[in-house]
Amino acid sequence: MLREIEAGWPSAVSADLNAEHITLSDDEIRERMSGNLCRCAAYANIVPAIAAAMQNRSSEEVVR
Amino acid sequence: MNPFRYERASDTTTAVAMLAQTPGGAFLGGGTNLVDLMKLGVAQPQLLIDVSHLPYNRVELLSDGSVRIGAAVRNSDLAADRTIRSRYPMLAQALLAGASGQLRNLATTGGNLLQRTRCVYFQDVSKPCNKREPGSGCPAREGYHRNLAILGASEACIATHPSDMAVALVALDAVVRVLGPNGERTIPLTNFHRLPGDEPQRDTVLEHGELITSVDLPPLPFAPHSHYRKVRDRASYAFALVSVAAAIDVVDGIVRDSRIAFGGVAHVPWRARKAEAVLRGAAATEEIFRRAADDELADAQPLRDNAFKIPLARNILVRTLLSLTQEESR
Question: Which residues, at least 6 apart from B29, have a Cβ–Cβ distance to it below 8 Å?
Answer without folding.
Answer: B51, B52, B71, B72, B107, B108, B110, B111, B114
